[in-house]
DNA sequence: GTCTATGTAAACACAC
DNA sequence: GGTGTGTTTACATAGA
């Protein structure tokens, strides 16, 4: 018999998102991110409803228990009073109604099990409602079955009494046997009905079989084994059975199980929860002609019963596995194709390459092909299909340099969506982001309200957004400084507060322009990638309200970072294509913040006539009030100070 | 093989 | 003198 309890792993709400949460990566929510109050109150209400539903369930199950006990007592009284069928074989207790009824009530749950369920508190109200409805349907079926059994048994007993009075006539005996057969058929049909119902429950995730019940002899056989083990066992069973047929030896490895099963078979409790177990003699009447042959070849003894049970468990395990795989596949497909309409519940490490390189080729953009070079044996691998156990902070430490560039390839900057969608991942996992320093610096600057950051603020952004940059500070800070000085796109602006760094979008887009304009295939890829990114952008904007906003509220206390991020995302996604079509000459002012407020070039650069003619404009101190300190919250973060 | 972009390390200068 | 910032150089590597 099986203990049918509700699995906590399959009853999580928000099926798709949570499934992907399990499939992809389990994000540890930072302690600093507090849930808003309404969520707590809603949570409490859900818990109240859950407890209420559990109480109703408990009542229903208790009523079921009482009814079953009454029925059992009634049957025992009938047996004691001698109303037994003289034809009944001990090996064929098919007409023992209590056993059958008990077996047909797989949903009956003991109070201890209910206690476990109540303690688990894993059912959502919707699931409980569905479960209750199905439970009520089962109860109805049960009642009908009980009435049906009673009637059948009364008729049979009546006929048997008549036979005893009238003498045993072969013809009537045959008639009784036929009736018994018909009764068994009806019984089996009802069992199959209930089994189908149970299977549907299991497939819906509302019911599962849980290991860990030592009092159940067959349970380890079915639950503690993987399908291959069950298949192996089944092979042993069949081989043992064939050996028995040929040699007459009836002792095999299965005999232990068989004995175990048979010893527990009379126990009514051991059959209650087993939806697939059948009492002896009740398995062979589905297809009469075929089953008669089976009956003749395989006696309906404990061994056959055990074999059937093993096979049932094999099939059941395979079906469950198939159902799980199907559900997983469906969730993955849903996640991939319906992303634009389904806000993601948890940040997931999507493909972290930039939107352009995503479409360069499917194989290249695949997570397995992400930065992983000989110099970086533990280079970041974007997890997509792995579960939470795959990504561990210890296993993802990356020390080596990044030799492959994704964000700056083909002169397309890093997409804010890339960072925004994966920021939660990078915040917690020490995975090196597959973006260049230049792209990250630019992103940090563009995310700031004034589109300018001090060096220390850039540092803080790195450490805040990426757990990877909480290590080896000297190395990457040096790289940041090196990049700031090296690239002309980063402009140092003198301020009363000190020096701030800004981004010259024109210069940033200038890098390697010839590869974009000169390669039609790349342009085509970029166009297709833009088509891909359009739903991505929509999904991001839709999900930002649910997910990303809290992430930015910590950084945007007092400054509208979110709005800038959203605009930056649009700028990135749209600007990539704009830049693809017209390289650098037609940069719109709205897309390039540095054109609106272009700073003084303090950096000593080789005199370039084109640069000298750039739209330079002084950033006066009036633009930066002394109390302007929108990044103080960055500096206040202890994690940043620890890294210094 | 060459060139470019990038990452890393290091040296150096300067200001506080 | 220590530290942070900024610049520059050198070298290695990947990719076009």
From TrEMBL:
Any one Gene Ontology molecular-function term assigned to this protein's record? zinc ion binding
Q: Does the keyword Zinc apply?
A: yes
Q: Indicate the residues that the entry says bind DNA.
A: 432-505
Q: Localized where?
A: Nucleus
Query: Which InterPro entries does the UniProt record give?
Result: FH_FOXP1_P2, Fork_head_dom, FOXP, FOXP-CC, TF_fork_head_CS_2, WH-like_DNA-bd_sf, WH_DNA-bd_sf
Q: Gene of origin?
A: FOXP1
Query: Which cellular component appears as one GO term in the record?
Result: nucleus
> Does the entry feature the keyword Nucleotide-binding, yes or no?
no
Segments carrying the region annotation (Disordered) are 357-389, 578-644
The record lists the organism as Ailuropoda melanoleuca (Giant panda)
What keyword terms does UniProt attach to this protein?
DNA-binding, Metal-binding, Nucleus, Repressor, Transcription, Transcription regulation, Zinc, Zinc-finger
Please report the stretch or stretches of sequence annotated as the Fork-head domain: 432-505
The lineage's top-level taxon is Eukaryota
Q: Where is the composition biased (Acidic residues)?
A: 634-644
BP term (GO), one = animal organ development
Q: Where does it mainly reside?
A: nucleus
Which CDD domains is this protein grouped with? Answer: FH_FOXP2 (cd20065)
Q: Where is the composition biased (Polar residues)?
A: 357-370, 579-590
Could you identify this protein by its name?
Forkhead box P1
Residue spans of biased composition, Low complexity class: 371-385
What residue ranges carry the coiled-coil annotation?
A: none
């Amino acid at each position: 018999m099986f203990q049918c309890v509700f699995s906590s792993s399959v009853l999580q709400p928000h099926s798709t998102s949570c499934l992907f949460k399990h499939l992809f990566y389990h994000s540890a929510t930072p302690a600093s991110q507090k849930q808003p109050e309404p969520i707590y109150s809603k949570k409490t209400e859900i818990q109240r409803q859950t407890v209420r539903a559990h109480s109703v369930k408990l009542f229903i199950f208790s009523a079921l228990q009482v009814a079953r006990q009454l029925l059992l007592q009634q049957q025992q009284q009938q047996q004691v009073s001698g109303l037994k069928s003289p034809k009944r074989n001990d090996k064929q207790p098919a007409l023992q109604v209590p056993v059958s009824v008990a077996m047909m009530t797989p949903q009956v749950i003991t109070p201890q099990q209910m206690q476990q369920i109540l303690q688990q508190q894993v059912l959502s109200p919707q699931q409980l409602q569905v479960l209750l409805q199905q439970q009520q349907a089962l109860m109805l079926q049960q009642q009908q079955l009980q009435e049906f059994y009673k009637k059948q048994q009364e008729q049979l007993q009546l006929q048997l009494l008549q036979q005893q009075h009238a003498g045993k006539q072969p013809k009537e005996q045959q008639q009784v046997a036929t009736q018994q057969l018909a009764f068994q058929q009806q019984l089996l049909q009802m069992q199959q009905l209930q089994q189908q119902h149970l299977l549907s429950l299991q497939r819906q995730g509302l019911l599962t079989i849980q290991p860990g019940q030592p009092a159940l002899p067959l349970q380890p056989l079915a639950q503690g084994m993987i399908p291959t083990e069950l298949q192996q066992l089944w092979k042993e069973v069949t081989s043992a059975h064939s050996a028995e047929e040929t040699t007459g030896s009836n002792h095999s490895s299965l005999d232990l199980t068989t004995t175990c099963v048979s010893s527990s078979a009379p126990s009514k409790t051991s059959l209650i929860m087993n939806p697939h177990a059948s009492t002896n003699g009740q398995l062979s009447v589905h297809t009469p002609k075929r089953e008669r042959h089976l009956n003749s070849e395989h006696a309906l003894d404990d061994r056959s019963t055990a074999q059937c049970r093993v096979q049932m468990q094999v099939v059941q395990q395979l079906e469950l596995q198939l159902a799980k795989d199907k559900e997983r596949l469906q969730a993955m497909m849903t996640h991939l194709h319906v992303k634009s309409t389904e806000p993601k519940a948890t940040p997931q490490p999507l493909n972290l390459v930039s939107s352009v390189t995503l479409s360069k080729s499917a194989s290249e953009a695949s997570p397995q092909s992400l930065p992983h070079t000989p110099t970086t044996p533990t280079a970041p691998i974007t997890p997509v299909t792995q579960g939470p156990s795959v990504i561990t902070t210890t296993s993802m430490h990356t020390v080596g340099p990044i030799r492959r560039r994704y964000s700056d390839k083909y002169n397309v900057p890093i997409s804010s969506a890339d960072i925004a969608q994966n920021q939660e991942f990078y915040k917690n996992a020490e995975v090196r982001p597959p973006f260049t320093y230049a792209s990250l610096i630019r992103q940090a600057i563009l995310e700031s309200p004034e589109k300018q950051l001090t060096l220390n603020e850039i540092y803080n952004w790195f450490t805040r957004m990426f757990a990877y940059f909480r290590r080896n500070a000297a190395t990457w800070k040096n790289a940041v400084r090196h990049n700031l000085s090296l690239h002309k796109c980063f402009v140092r602006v003198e301020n009363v507060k000190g020096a701030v760094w800004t981004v010259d979008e024109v210069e940033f887009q200038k890098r390697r322009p010839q590869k974009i304009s000169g390669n039609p295939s790349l342009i085509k890829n970029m166009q297709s990638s833009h088509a891909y990114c359009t739903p991505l952008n929509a999904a991001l904007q839709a999900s930002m309200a649910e997910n990303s906003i809290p992430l930015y509220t910590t950084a945007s206390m007092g400054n509208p970072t979110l709005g800038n991020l959203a605009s930056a995302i649009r700028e990135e996604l749209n600007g990539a294509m704009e830049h693809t079509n017209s390289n650098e000459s037609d940069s719109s002012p709205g897309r390039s913040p540095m054109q609106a407020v272009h700073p003084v070039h303090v950096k000593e650069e080789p005199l370039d006539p084109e640069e000298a003619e750039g739209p330079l404009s002084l950033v006066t101190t009036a633009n930066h009030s002394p109390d302007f300190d929108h990044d103080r919250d960055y500096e206040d973060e202890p994690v940043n100070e620890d890294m210094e």
